[in-house]
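$ ./design --mode recover --in tokens.txt
reading tokens...
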């Protein structure tokens, strides 16, 4: 185990995930929001407009879409990262 810097709030923590335990629920919530968003018919395909539509910051969107669970999706949707 090593110290990591939380990608959301910048605090240091020890874990295998990329965000601290305070931020994990926020990540989980936003990821499910994002999944629901892409299941709708009229999603946007730029980070900026997805951010406006979902209220998720561009920084966090980039982080989620680089994750494996979303990378296939973002390729399929032709999202411009
Ligand atoms: Zn955090």
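writing sequence...
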């Amino acid at each position: 185990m090593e110290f990591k810097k939380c990608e959301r709030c910048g605090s240091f923590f020890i874990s295998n995930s990329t965000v601290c335990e305070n931020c994990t629920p926020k990540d989980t919530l936003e990821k499910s929001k994002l999944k629901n968003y892409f299941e709708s018919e009229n999603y946007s395909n730029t980070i900026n407009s997805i951010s406006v539509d979902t209220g998720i910051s561009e920084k966090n969107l980039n982080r989620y879409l680089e994750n494996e669970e979303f990378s296939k999706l973002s390729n399929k949707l032709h999202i411009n990262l």
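exit 0
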